[in-house]
């Protein structure tokens, strides 16, 4: 008799959607003050003016996107005065693509792929805002990606100065940024900053109790009772705290339950979690590396190679001396790149001397895996 591999009418999931990355959570706690701050920025637009711009800053998976989308959903349900438009800069990385996304939200379809200039797209947007007397708020999600392409300043400037060509057209920008070292105030030109003047809204990493609370809510909705014990949840919380990204925990819960289902068990056990961690840990690493700029990726790769070559601790000055890229970046830029790798929890920086510039650099992942993923093929394969 043939074994049926894809058969099972028994599942431990009440709703597997609850663990998907695009699921809009029913319960969204621990971000009340950030939601209040965002609402404050929007108030002037509700009174017929222009919303205030904001930068939502925080490490990956700290709830920035979800907060903005929640506020946008509420706006869509409650007012016609404001047009909220969400742009994912992972997909839309050029000025034309960003403006096409806004055009589509206003007109109902994307502009033709060829033969339409960005000027015509902006004319359509500006004209529609004038006619409809709506205030536009654009969320540039992962705006740091536009910044690395030198596009952010131009996009923000064109949006916030729309009123100069189309009197009465009002726009504001909510940018989300996961690069904690990006200092837009000093990186963007005064010409852009003058109309932008964003408020900074900070999203701190969740602590262990908050992560436990978030995962508990999902488990309650998404799984049948008794599938996930408190002890097993503690194991997942521990693993999630290593990256600080809620997505890691959600992914681990889902995989652990799938592993239990495969073994025809009705409860998740330690072994399911260990296996889930082995399956998932490199996916998180690959996602984080994919978001790095080319220079940062090369630096990480160099650190991994040096970790393979030498057994003792790596020191920042020595790493700088061994960076082979040309033109070589200055030490200040190099230090900034190291701090970013630290903030993304790819490396640990340990200050050797208080106040000094030298740090020990410890890679948080296996060097072989990092070298493999940093190579283009590795990133595509993960
Ligand atoms: N307070 C929360 N309650 C419930 N779910 C949450 C909470 N915070 C984050 N999440 C979930 O974690 C995942 C990541 O959240 P989100 O995309 O909002 O983070 P982010 O800070 O925008 O990340 P990135 O910088 O990588 O884009 C989503 O699936 C979201 O539903």
From TrEMBL:
Pfam families to which the protein is assigned, alphabetical: AAA_22 (PF13401), Cdc6_lid (PF22703)
Swiss-Prot/TrEMBL GO biological process terms: cell division; DNA replication
Keyword Nucleotide-binding carried by entry: yes
Domain ORC1/DEAH AAA+ ATPase: from-to ranges: 52-165
Domain Cdc6 AAA+ ATPase-type lid span(s) in chain numbering: 213-278
Keyword line: ATP-binding, Cell cycle, Cell division, DNA replication, Hydrolase, Nucleotide-binding
Keyword Hydrolase: yes
Binding locations of ATP: 62-66, 206, 218
InterPro entries: AAA_22, Cdc6_lid, ORC1/CDC6, Orc1/Cdc6_arc, P-loop_NTPase, WH-like_DNA-bd_sf, WH_DNA-bd_sf
UniProt GO MF annotations: ATP binding; ATP hydrolysis activity
Source organism, top-level taxon: Archaea
UniProt similarity note: Belongs to the CDC6/cdc18 family.
Function: Involved in regulation of DNA replication.
Name of protein: ORC1-type DNA replication protein
Organism from which the protein derives: Methanoculleus bourgensis (strain ATCC 43281 / DSM 3045 / OCM 15 / MS2) (Methanogenium bourgense)
Protein's gene: cdc6b
